[in-house]
Amino acid sequence: MLPGMRSIMTAHACAMPDSATAASALRVLLAAPTEVRCGRFEAFLVESPDIELAGWTDSESRAMQLFFLLTPDVTVLDWRVSVSQPARFVGLLKRVAPYARIVSVVPAQDSMPARAARALGADAVVTADELPGCLREMAADRDGIPARYL
User: Fold this and answer.
1) Structural contact between residues 33 and 58, judged by C-beta atoms closer than 8 angstroms
2) Residue 83 forms part of a structural domain
3) Which of 121, 122, 120 lies closest to 103, judged by CA?
4) I want to staple 32 with a disulfide (CB 3.0 to 4.6 A). Which of 5, 17, 36, 58 is the partner?
């Protein structure tokens, strides 16, 4: 294990569910500020047994590391993780893992972060209010989730 990786895994990887839940739940990696994870989104996850928070970080570089460590079904990227270049991570991840399923959370559908995320290949571009519905649809359509390793 690389130096520093243990602390990343300990701090940001969520508890593993039992094997029955793990087999059926949509595993989500969330790259977002702390305030996004807390509150409504956390309540949504508690109420959604078919969606599991596999890991969380507030850093693009940690999100890339956690993507390969945790192999989530979906990576959710909030535009506030990198305000100066809000869609950069979408392009980086699609370049090294074209099979990655990415949901980009943006301030508005017609915003610059939304346009950039679409241009760089985000699978879905949603506002924070639209995120729960988007994840519910993805959890229901598990056949639409690409294989983790091609």
Assistant:
1) yes
2) yes
3) 122
4) 36
Which CATH number is 59's domain given?
Answer: 3.40.50.2300
Q: How many domains does the chain have?
A: 1
Q: Is residue 17 part of a domain?
A: no
Q: Using H for helix, E for strand and C for coil, what is the string for 15-53?
A: CCCCHHHHHHCEEEEEECCHHHHCCHHHHHHHCCCCEEE
| 23 token code pair | 């087999």
Q: Is residue 3 part of a domain?
A: no
Max Cα–Cα distance, the chain, nearest Å: 42
Digit-by-digit pLDDT tens for the chain (150 residues) are 444 444 344 344 444 444 444 457 999 999 998 877 777 888 898 899 999 999 999 999 999 999 999 999 999 999 999 878 878 899 999 999 999 999 999 999 999 999 999 999 999 999 999 999 999 999 998 766 655 533
- Per the structure block, which two tokens stand in for 19? 């094997």
Domain span including residue 91: 23-143
Query: CA-to-CA distance for 93 and 39, rounded, in angstroms?
Result: 27
Output the CA–CA distances (angstroms, integers) from residue 17 to 24, 53, 92, 131, in the order listed.
Answer: 11, 10, 29, 22
